[in-house]
From TrEMBL, chain A:
<keyword id="KW-0813">Transport</keyword>
<dbReference type="InterPro" id="IPR035906">
    <property type="entry name" value="MetI-like_sf"/>
</dbReference>
<dbReference type="Pfam" id="PF00528">
    <property type="entry name" value="BPD_transp_1"/>
</dbReference>
<dbReference type="GO" id="GO:0005886">
    <property type="term" value="C:plasma membrane"/>
</dbReference>
<keyword id="KW-1003">Cell membrane</keyword>
<dbReference type="InterPro" id="IPR045621">
    <property type="entry name" value="BPD_transp_1_N"/>
</dbReference>
<keyword id="KW-1133">Transmembrane helix</keyword>
<feature type="transmembrane region" description="Helical">
    <location>
        <begin position="186"/>
        <end position="205"/>
    </location>
</feature>
<dbReference type="Pfam" id="PF19300">
    <property type="entry name" value="BPD_transp_1_N"/>
</dbReference>
TrEMBL record, chain B:
<comment type="similarity">
    <text>Belongs to the ABC transporter superfamily.</text>
</comment>
<keyword id="KW-0472">Membrane</keyword>
<feature type="domain" description="ABC transporter">
    <location>
        <begin position="10"/>
        <end position="260"/>
    </location>
</feature>
<dbReference type="GO" id="GO:0016887">
    <property type="term" value="F:ATP hydrolysis activity"/>
</dbReference>
<dbReference type="GO" id="GO:0005524">
    <property type="term" value="F:ATP binding"/>
</dbReference>
<keyword id="KW-1003">Cell membrane</keyword>
<protein>
    <submittedName>
        <fullName>Oligopeptide transport ATP-binding protein OppD</fullName>
    </submittedName>
</protein>
<dbReference type="InterPro" id="IPR013563">
    <property type="entry name" value="Oligopep_ABC_C"/>
</dbReference>
<dbReference type="InterPro" id="IPR003593">
    <property type="entry name" value="AAA+_ATPase"/>
</dbReference>
Length: 319, 343
């Protein structure tokens, strides 16, 4: 199994190199220069020319790329033009916010989705199953942002149960109060996100369990005289979790990626909102850093999925 | 040969299995009567859809009770299986009745080691310790002809060939020395050389355990090679039943005769094979009355058939449904003198 993991990690290295070159070249291909907007418009073009020269922006692209990579390895992703803060610091603050929200959403998603999918499959074709399926179809057919806006309107403004924006109340001080305040800010977006996230899991698990229930190996187990309750425990459940386990790797990617919709509607200062604003303000250093980070997270998610799969499915293992 | 009644440990009496289709029940198996004795292989033959697998699953009690209606009686060593609840049935499944399935590629759980899958049946029916179970697994794997049992026990199904997997399924079926083994097309998914090996394994096991085997197949070659007695099924009914010799040497029912004639033989390889006209009726279109095979031999006059065909004993427990066999002839052969078969 370690061989599989090692092989996958080794494959990731060239993938990352290619990704970083693409991201860098795309950033370079964007029109304009980093200085024209940030200094006095009456400044002498020669001065910009000078700045470009001392920042090495006239060097050939591979030399610039190399400098960028060296900085990258020193943990330096440059300064944000909009916030006038190192990009690394920005990502750290926003990343933490996103992480809390996403973790909360993910735990809720699985805590609701797994039992619900199993429940529906167990009662296949009956009223209980139909109700769960109606829920999944209805949720799937409403656009996510509509639900977010409705949720914020009902529970935030009308009922005033939850705060409607931000990640923490400005008046909260002390560890207990700040923690409670943070939690209060993620409950509503987390719940609404989970409401949507469960749909995938419920449908996946439901169809997997139903497939397994009618599979030949379950029939074999029944002909061994194994009670159905034990067949669910030993045969059906584990086999049905395979695609969910594979899926989990990707959803961990989302932990740091953040949901642009949720963060925008709730004005929640996370990675998604940072990315959206960076695009609006042409904050090139932030965009480059985030695209690279997202790419890296995606590769990590795939790797994680593969590792999880190779643990649970002997057919994927290399022995 | 006269058998004592004690040998008859399974008797299926007037069993019908009906499936619910669009809210209505249709018979897939109708009024089947069969006996199985120790030390014998009873083959059930018939084409796809004739109800032979349905009958096997009925004996095993594996049908969904909400989708099927089963009537009759299955007397297994004094217990009527059809009266058992799920818990009671589980005492028979695996312990007293073992089942071998058609497709060895999908009949094993892909995520469990061979050893665990064989041990599972012992966990539910014996009080053996883990150590004893392991020893039994190795013994079983030897019995079904696996070369390196210790290694195979530790492997996963995907690491084994189809033939090996079918041997594992057999090992599971015989792990608790059942009295009855139901083999539902055990060789269909395998190639011919492996087929012969698997049939050998089945025969050896039967001799050793004094089990009775119900062998379900559409392959008359397999039947000729292994079976002691044969029941021929058509459209959910048994149409002819007798010893293998009776069925192969003196087939009576038009369906049996047609089946045998449509089997390629070494001496007729240049002739065109005989083809039975028409198709098996679907469950919904099954004729309610009359001989179900009559539409496929339209040249036989209706008067030759019984209105309600029953089984007739024509001597030595050779049973044939309907009286039409007396007047049956193949259309390409001249009809011989009537009544020559009523000796």
């Amino acid at each position: 199994m370690w061989k599989t993991i090692l092989r996958r990690v080794l494959i990731m290295i060239p993938e990352l190199v290619i990704l970083s070159i693409l991201v860098f070249l795309l950033a370079k291909a964007m029109p304009g220069d980093p200085f024209t907007g940030s200094i006095n418009p009456k400044a002498d073009p020669a001065q910009i020319h000078h700045l470009m020269e001392i920042h090495g922006l006239y060097d050939p692209w591979y030399q610039q790329y190399w400098n960028w990579v060296v900085h990258l390895f020193h943990g330096d992703l440059g300064m944000s033009y909009e916030y006038q803060e190192p990009v690394v610091d920005l990502i750290q603050q926003r990343g933490a916010n996103t992480l809390w929200l996403a973790l909360f959403t993910m735990v809720l998603t699985y805590a609701i989705g797994l039992p619900l999918g199993l429940y529906a499959a167990h009662h296949e074709g009956k009223l209980q199953d139909t109700l769960v399926r109606v829920y999944t179809y209805v949720t799937m057919s409403i656009p996510f942002f509509v639900v977010l806006v409705l949720g914020i309107w009902i529970f935030g403004y009308a009922l005033n149960w939850f705060p409607t924006s931000g990640s923490i109340s400005a008046t909260a001080t002390g560890f207990g109060a700040t923690t409670m305040s943070r939690l209060g800010h993620i409950i509503l977006p987390g719940l609404l996100g989970a409401l949507f996230g469960t749909v995938n899991i419920v449908q996946y698990l439901r169809s997997e369990v139903i497939d397994a229930k009618h599979s030949d190996y379950v029939r074999t187990a029944r002909s061994k005289g194994v009670p159905m309750k034990d067949i669910y425990r030993h045969h059906i459940f584990r086999n049905s979790l395979l695609p969910i386990a594979a899926f989990a790797g990707y959803s961990i990617t989302g932990l740091l990626g953040g949901s642009i919709f949720t963060e925008m509607v709730f004005s929640y200062p996370g990675m998604g909102l940072l990315f959206l604003n960076a695009i609006n303000f042409r904050d090139y250093t932030v965009i480059t850093a985030l695209v690279l980070l997202y790419g890296f997270l995606n590769l990590m998610g795939t790797l994680l999925s593969d590792i999880v799969l190779s643990i649970v499915d002997p057919r994927v293992r290399i022995e | 040969m006269v058998e004592t009644n004690n040998d008859q440990f399974l008797s299926i009496k007037d069993v019908s299995t009906a499936f619910k289709i669009n809210g209505q029940y249709y018979d897939a198996v109708s009024n089947v009567n069969l006996e199985v004795k120790h030390d014998e292989i009873l083959a059930i033959v018939g084409e796809s859809g004739c109800g032979k697998s349905t009958l096997a699953t009925t004996i095993m009690g594996l049908h969904d009770p909400e989708e099927t209606k089963i009537s009759g009686e299955i007397d297994f060593e004094g217990t009527d299986l059809l009266k058992l609840d799920e818990k009671g049935y589980n005492k028979f499944r695996g312990a007293k009745i073992g089942m071998i399935f058609q497709d060895p590629l999908s009949a094993l759980n892909p995520l469990k080691r061979i050893e665990d899958q064989i041990q599972e049946v012992m966990i539910y029916h014996t009080k053996m310790t883990e150590k004893q179970r392991h020893a039994r697994v190795i013994e079983l794997l030897n019995e079904v002809g696996i070369d390196d049992p210790e290694r195979t026990a530790h492997q996963f199904p995907h690491q084994l060939s189809g033939g090996m997997r079918q041997r594992i399924i057999i090992a599971i079926a015989i792990a608790c020395k059942p009295d009855l083994i139901i083999a539902d097309e055990p060789t269909t998914a395998l190639d011919v050389t492996i087929q012969a090996q698997i049939l050998d394994v089945l025969r050896d096991i039967q001799k050793e355990n004094h089990a009775g085997i119900i062998l379900i197949t559409h392959d008359l070659g397999v039947v000729a090679e292994t079976a002691d007695r044969v029941a021929v099924m058509y459209a959910g009914q048994i149409v002819e039943q007798g010893t293998a010799a009776q069925i192969f040497n003196e087939p009576k029912h038009p369906y049996t005769r047609s089946l045998l004639r449509s089997m390629p033989q070494r001496d007729n390889e240049n002739d065109e094979l005989y083809v039975i006209q028409g198709m098996v009726p679907s469950l919904q279109k099954m004729p309610k009355e009359g001989d179900r095979f009559a539409p496929r031999i339209p040249w036989i006059p209706a008067s030759a058939h019984e209105a309600r065909p029953t089984m007739h004993d024509i001597g030595d427990n050779h049973l044939v449904r309907c009286t039409c066999y007396k007047d049956f002839y193949f259309p390409d052969q001249v009809k011989e003198g009537a009544g020559h078969e009523s000796n």
